[in-house]
Amino acid sequence: MNDRTSDRAVADTAPPWGGAVSVGSREAAVRALLPVVEASGVTKRYGSTAALADVSLRVMAGESHALVGRNGAGKSTLVSILTGLRKPDEGTVRFNGESAPALADRDAWRERVACVYQHSTIIRDLTVAENLFINRQPRRRGVIDWPTMRRDARALLDHWRIDVREDARAGDLTVEARQLVEIARALSYGARFIILDEPTAQLDGEEIKRLFRRIDELQREGVTFLFISHHLQEVYEICQAVTVLRDARHIVSASVAELPREKLIEAMTGERGGLNVADAAARAALPANAPLALEVRGLTGRDYHDVSFTLKRGEVVGLTGATSSGRTSVGEAIAGLTAQRSGEIRVKGAPLTPGDVPAALASGVGCVPKDRHHEGLVLTQSVAENASMTIAGLLGRFGFAPPAKKHAFGKRMIESLGIVAQGPSHVVSGLSGGNQQKVVMARALASNPDVLVLIDPTAGVDVKSKEALLSVVDRVREEGKAVLVVSSELDDLRTCDRVLVMFRGEVVAEKAAGWQDHELIASIEGVDLHEE
Fold first, then answer.
1. Residue 33 burial by CB count (10 A; 0-12/13-18/19+): exposed, middle or buried?
2. Residue 53: is it exposed, middle or buried by C-beta count within 10 angstroms (0-12/13-18/19+)?
3. What topology does CATH give the domain 275-364+451-461+480-532?
4. Which of 363, 368, 359 is nearest to 387 (CA)?
5. Could you give the angle at the alpha carbon of 21 between the alpha carbons of 16 and 26, nearest 5°?
6. Would you give the DSSP letter of residue 36?
7. Which residues, 6+ apart, have CB-to-CB distance to 397 below 8 Å?
8. 26-113+191-269 and 275-364+451-461+480-532 share one CATH topology?
9. Cystine design at 23: which of 12, 165, 362, 479 (Cβ 3.0–4.6 Å)?
10. Cβ contacts of 268-276, under 8 Å, gap ≥ 24
11. Could you read off the pLDDT of 166-199 as tens digits, one per residue?
12. Positions in the chain whose pLDDT score sits under 70
């Protein structure tokens, strides 16, 4: 698909539902040479944090342009600016050579750009026709003109060759069909620039192929796409150009044909961050006869399939993959936060009850969950109360721990983990993000688990807190505990004796300690570095 040129004709006028017609005027020819969207020197700050720093992007008419970067690179912030949800602190955005509309002029933004998000904005309980014309239904004598709306919906779907019934309930459609309905809705406003945010995350192989064929057809009709994906192989399948962001900065923009996979991954990763963490590559190998702490056999759930691996005492194993890989769901199943559909989890040889957190704790599994605010902490309670939450029954009779014992335990955790707080009575909502995460770690360690599951353990914390949290991993490993690190952050994974890579719900690779950044990321992104 990469032999398409980027100077396809752009529609100058369109019927009410957004169809393209060819135009031979000089004005249209000049406009086709202008970028559909051009961001220049865009900077966006939140307090002292730069979410974007002097970022530029140029997308030409009729092309599919990839926007890639690791988590936190600035992609979401840039999309929010390109769609008029945020205003840049510095820099400009232009559409077809003209300045972007005022943020308040939502109709003008809809005529220029639309975003089809990974999580659909389609209202499931409405029909396709109602979704297509929501908040702008044709009216007759003050009431909705249902026959006209259904007729216009049918005309719109037929024009863009989207094979769904206009009277179908949107919730009954496939994910693929809902995405196409969202694209049709965007086109009906007049937008010819569509942002696709992880469009294949919930699709299977055949659905992805059909979606890519449809994108190709729409490009030939003058529609331009900004394609955001963690699966770099898809960039080479569908896109003609690519822009890489890293650490909130623009790194490179180039033709896909001129940017080999190795160079693309190098642009995404850059130099190693330099965290002072223990690298498992320098560690002596575990004895071959080390006892097993965790066995996962044939685990299958909502977004993962037939996952199997083992974890020895004193071993640290990483489980990584893109956001949609299923890695988080596997970690949550092992911790008892969710139940698998089939398969078995054993801790020290004993089966674990699916979806039962108290049973997991009793079996010797501790967990730092992904979302500390909703799953890891009670923000209105103190450090001591949060840290001792999983062991209240051990500190006192009938599950009621005396305040003095809670206070003493909280003090020990503050000293052990370097929690910066006024004392054990300090309410956790008043702590920094890094210190809140240390409290979550304290709670996970309180029950003295045999298996410690860490899900994105350093997300959203500062460098020093990252170093402190990852040093805990090395410490508990030396104590003979098994640690499963579920993360896509490279520094989190350097502490691991081996890293299992998940892609589209399955374990597809295993990397021993000492892996190279570009090799691991290639596996995460589903790229074959040796493909010609």
1. exposed
2. middle
3. Rossmann fold (3.40.50)
4. 368
5. 120
6. E
7. none
8. yes
9. 12
10. 268/68, 268/69, 268/70, 268/73, 268/244, 268/521, 269/70, 269/490, 269/517, 269/518, 269/521, 270/246, 272/490, 272/517, 273/490, 273/491, 275/463, 275/466, 275/467, 275/470, 275/491, 276/467
11. 999 998 988 888 888 988 888 888 889 999 988 8
12. 1-32, 71, 201-202, 204-205, 271-276, 392-401, 460, 462-463, 528-532
Q: Please tell me what DSSP assigns to residue 183.
A: H
Residues 184/160, Cβ–Cβ less than 8 Å = yes
Q: Is 436 exposed, middle or buried (0-12, 13-18, 19+ CB in 10 A)?
A: buried
Q: What is the CB-side half-sphere exposure of residue 523 using CA atoms within 13 A?
A: 20
CATH 2.60.40.10 fits 26-113+191-269, yes or no: no
pLDDT tens readout for residues 72-125: 788 989 999 999 999 999 999 999 999 999 999 998 998 999 888 877 788 989
Rounded to whole angstroms, the Cα distance separating 194 from 253 reads 19
Element housing 312 (H / E):
strand 304-312
β strands within 330-459, DSSP E: 342-347, 350-351, 365-368, 451-455
Domain ranges of the chain: 26-113+191-269, 275-364+451-461+480-532, 373-446
Block residue for tokens 């980027």 = 6
- Beta-carbon contacts of 477 under 8 Å, excluding residues fewer than 6 positions away, are 314, 315, 316, 483
Question: Kind of pairing, strands 64-68 and 114-116?
Answer: unpaired
Residues in the chain: 532
Which residue shows structure tokens 């003050």? 142
The Cβ of residue 40 has, within 10 Å, a number of other Cβ atoms equal to 15
| Beta bridge pairs of residue 255 | 241
Pairwise CA distance, residues 423 & 414, whole Å: 8
Q: How far is CA 281 from CA 136, 291, 514, in A?
A: 60, 21, 5
DSSP string covering 190-237, please? T--EEEEESTTTT--HHHHHHHHHHHHHHHHTT-EEEEE-S-HHHHHH
**DSSP 3-state assignment of 102?**
coil
Residue 127 three-state SS? strand
Query: Distance from first CA to last CA of the chain, Å, rounded?
Result: 16
Q: How far apart are CA 42 and CA 54, in angstroms?
A: 5
The HSE-up count of residue 450 (CA atoms within 13 Å, CB side) is 19
Give the integer Cα–Cα distance in Å for 474 and 242: 39
* Burial per residue of 194-205, b for 16 or more beta-carbon CB atoms within 10 angstroms, e otherwise: bbbbbbbbbbee
The sheet carrying 90-95 orders its strands as 49-60, 35-46, 90-95, 98-99
Residue 483 identity: V
Q: How far is CA 240 from CA 180, 194, 227, 359, in A?
A: 21, 15, 10, 51
